[in-house]
Amino acid sequence: MAVEDIMTKKVISVDKNRKLSDAVNLMEKKRISRIAVTIDGELCGILTEKDVADHIGTSRHGKSSPSSLHISTAMKSPIISVEKDVSIKKAAKMMLKQGISSLPVLDKGKLAGIVTKTDIVKTLVDSEEKLEDIMKIGVVTVSANDRIVHARRLMLDKKIGRVVVVEEGNIVGVLTERGAAKALFTFKQATDRVQSSRIRSILVKDAMTPTVITLDIKAKVKDALKIMIKNKFSGIPLTRGGKLAGIVTKTDILKVK
Questions:
Q1: At the fourth CATH level, which superfamily is domain 131-254?
Q2: Residue 191 has what pLDDT?
Q3: Which of 49, 20, 52 lies closest to 34, judged by CA?
Q4: Most CB within 10 Å of its CB: which of 66, 69, 148, 171?
């Protein structure tokens, strides 16, 4: 099976010279985590929620209003892409090797679609693989009262897309790149240049998802994917005896491919 068989053909794009706030609002409206960036109609980059969070959180742009920043300052370029006839397995290996979540799909050099981790893992919806065999242990956790900049630093240092929020040994939430990006961006939009230093006071509880769905480590990949696809999750905390024991993400499942 080739990537053209599972890719999203309708790619939402935005010009690189538009404001960063335009892209963020579009991603929020369409409930997508990445957007193609173009110039004169030609693909020139990709912008993800992680890029936004990283960009807004840097000291270089710490005093800049989001409305003054442009997409070109945060997007990823050059682009790693694949031709439409590339196999799904090869595309999965490219994503894992490059540490990326999507690949623009080209047809003779022209943008034809985009394939994501979600598209690929959907082909594993009947997998009987056990989660305990692919899960990550040693889960990175934070407290609800930790600062969001601390949580973001952990995500960057550990190269992960989410941290589990724990209080007194109990899972109380999950903070994702999407949650962090939205909180940072919303806060900076509501403050002026003088107040922007207060961004460091935002707490994890202000941005986390408080309702957490978990699975027992004895569950299977198909069980996790059912929840992920329905709720648009990229990771699920795993428990043993009701206590946090690990986490499984789309990246982990991608390795099964």
A1: CBS-domain (3.10.580.10)
A2: 59
A3: 49
A4: 148
